[in-house]
Amino acid sequence: MILSIQNVVKTYGSYTAVDHVSFDVPRGSVFGLLGPNGAGKTSLIRMITTITGPDEGAILLEGEKLNERTPEKIGYMPEERGLYKKMKVGDHLMYLAQLKGLSEAQARKAIGHWLEKFDIKDWWPKKVEDLSKGMQQKIQFIATIVHQPRLLILDEPFTGLDPINTTLIKEEIGNLNEAGISIIFSTHRMEQVEEMCDHIVLINKGRNVLFGEVQDIKNQYKQNLFRVETEGDLPAEIAEHFPVREQGKDAVTVQLEEESKSNDLLKYLIQKGVRITRFEEILPTFNEIFIRRVAETGEA
């Protein structure tokens, strides 16, 4: 495990922001940290990055309790960007890289690599305030990963990016993960969770209410829904034999009591001489799972 959260509690006065939360982030994973507004995600991130400390419990990075060297092992890009707008891009990145433990020579080499990779090497003398929001986002991303962190924490990393630059940053996140960097990805966009994450934890009202592998969770919440598409008309009496949820002329969605009953559905249609062009199980989207689980554990 790259990160272990062990029974962590964080309070602010009489308010409990994080309430005995425990989960592990597998090494090399893209891990989704999810939850509605006010769930406790930011409080958790602030503790992981040593901005604050837990009131109870422990947080371990690579098996060690957090310490003064921990920030050098972590790259954190907050949702609210923190660039100094009056500074020049190159000076800004040099300053942040050296704060993360790089020497001047190491920082200059690493920054040059990323500016060239993003085809923005001419930006070094530009002031941050002269860049567009999307361009500033690229600089923030470089500042986050320039020191080659072991753990990368990205909070809504695609905010403000156009589709082209969103794709670019997604590809770089994938490359970093393939190179062995573990990633915590916090977002409200559930389609991005399904696309990018292999594990997730869902926090609601300061508590861990769902944790595991993405595919396992989707299987856990499936409702045995199957969609059949056909060439030609469906039997008019199909609803007499199977619980139909939706039906059209050449497509039907049924909700079966058991997954194994799908074989009975196929057998029935074949016996009726129906030519099947598509047969698939409909798994719930993460947006549906998110809404359902939050509702089950109290209103967001």
Features of this protein?
about 300 residues, alpha/beta, Rossmann fold, six-stranded mixed beta sheet, 10 helices, about 30% strand
Question: Care to describe what's here?
Answer:
With 300 residues, the protein is an alpha/beta fold. It has helices at residues 41-48, 70-73, 89-99, 104-117, 133-145, 163-178, 190-196, 214-220, 262-271, 286-296; strands at 3-12, 15-25, 30-34, 56-61, 64-65, 74-77, 151-155, 182-186, 199-204, 207-213, 225-231, 244-247, 251-255, 275-282. It folds into two domains: 3-218, 3-Layer(aba) Sandwich (Rossmann fold); 223-282. It has ten helices and 14 strands. It has a six-stranded mixed sheet. Strands 2-1-4-5 form a four-stranded antiparallel sheet, with helices on one face. Helix 3 (89-99) crosses helix 4 (104-117).
Low-confidence stretches: none
Total beta-strand segments:
14
Helix count, DSSP H or I runs of 4 or more residues: 10
The CATH homologous superfamily of the largest domain: P-loop containing nucleotide triphosphate hydrolases
Major beta-sheet overview: 6 strands, mixed
Q: Classify the helix fraction into a percent range.
A: 25-40%
The strands making up the biggest β-sheet line up spatially as 6-7-8-3-9-10
